[in-house]
Amino acid sequence: MKAAVLESYNHFEWKDVETPKVKPGEVLVRIQFASICGTDMHIFPGDFHPRTQVPFIPGHEMGGVVAEVGENVSDFEPGDKVAVDPIIWCGECPACQRKHYPACTSLKLLGVDMDGGFAEYISVPPHMLFKTAPHLPDEHVALVEIYGIGFHANNRAKTKEGDTLAIWGAGRVGQVILQAARTKTNGTIFMVDPLENRLQIAEKYYENLIGINPKKENPVEAIKRHTSGKGVDIAFEAVGHADDIEGVYTPVRSCIQSLRGGGKVCVLGLSDEPSPIVFKELIWKEAQIITSRVSDGEFTEVIEHLNAGNLKPDVLISKVMPGSEIQKAFEMLQKEKEKYLKVLLDFR
Ligand SMILES: [Zn+2]
Ligand SMILES: [Zn+2]
Fold first, then answer.
1. The dihedral sign for the CA sequence 307, 312, 315, 316
2. Does a structural domain hold residue 241?
């Protein structure tokens, strides 16, 4: 089969490798599309070394069609359209024993800790596969994983009908939090981002959505003004870094400031830097800080909504490129990452 092998950091090769053998208890999937994630952009130059070991095949957001079923597998047959959940829990650590899988202390991912889906085939156990409706476009199946992040965040924050939200960061993660949130509440949603093109995407496709550019106005003041001084029920931090924007805000603290009393902040941004917050501002509201990491069984929920047409996957897809052009795709994203939401690779 052909695969995109990261031969050395910053260098992919599109080459022939051995097609995986289907072991008993496994299913061989013919990958149709895979999506490039922010994590892949960090793996590419070696930020994840030594966790990643080159040469290997990255890719953890992928969908395809069952090509072959190994012995002792009964739930799948060739031709089934499937999304692949790339997460491998250990099942034994204290978090796993309490079924709190995203906090697994030795959580592993296909395409990070072992070969992944930037290839024509992958062989995985059936519990990592989720069937979609046959009518779902192949491109959309590759987005199930990232939608899982958005649904998991909403489930962690317990978003419910009538809730008003503020989503800080309108990039890939912010956009899937928004789409997932819209299956749960018709309340006003504020999106905060300094990039106008991202705000426009959200405003164009969703009603009762207010985009706020922190370079033009103070977002906390704007949210207060639009909510008659009350603030929102839930604020999601999907900015991903602790930096303030020209002194206007620091992401987590501004989330707290934009809440109503008793509200919740759900933090997703993975920053290595400390994020300053003033606990008095949190305590006076008796507000809660919740965190959200990867997903936990949300694949089923995502697929139900995709099958029913409740999500807008095409909004997320900025560009589709052939798998053979992976090197070009990564260089393009390195140069102009703000221009794109999801870039998909076509392995058909
Ligand atoms: Zn990812
Ligand atoms: Zn574990």
1. negative
2. yes
| CA 298 to ligand 2 centroid distance, Å | 18
Distance 91 CA to ligand 2 centre (A): 5
Q: How far is the CA of 115 from the centre of ligand 1 (A)?
A: 14
Mean pLDDT value of segment 8-33: 96
Structural domain containing residue 167: 150-291
Amino acid letter, residue 152: H
Can you say whether the dihedral through the CA atoms of 243, 244, 247, 252 is positive or negative? negative
User: Mean of the per-residue pLDDT values for the chain?
Assistant: 94
Ligand having the closest approach to the CA of 62: 1
Confidence band of 74 (pLDDT split at 50, 70, 90): very high
| Ligand nearest to C-alpha 111 | 1
107 in a structural domain: yes
Ligand nearest to the CA of 92: 2
Cβ 338 vs Cβ 194: under 8 Å: no
Interval between CA 39 and ligand 1 midpoint (Å): 6
Asked whether residue 297 is assigned to any structural domain, the reply reads no
pLDDT digits (tens, 9 = 90+) for 198-248: 999 999 999 999 999 998 999 999 999 999 999 999 999 998 776 666 656
Q: Say if 209 falls within a structural domain.
A: yes
Indicate whether 191 and 159 sit together in one domain: yes
Tally of domains in the chain: 2
**What residues does the ion ligand 2 have nearby, CB within 5 Å?**
90, 93, 96, 104
Task: Measure the CA–CA gap between 313 and 139, rounded to whole angstroms.
Answer: 9
Rounded alpha-carbon distances, angstroms, from residue 118 to 86, 166, 296: 12, 34, 23
The predicted structure's pLDDT at residue 272? 81
For residue 45, say if its preceding peptide bond is cis, omega within 30 degrees of 0.
Answer: no
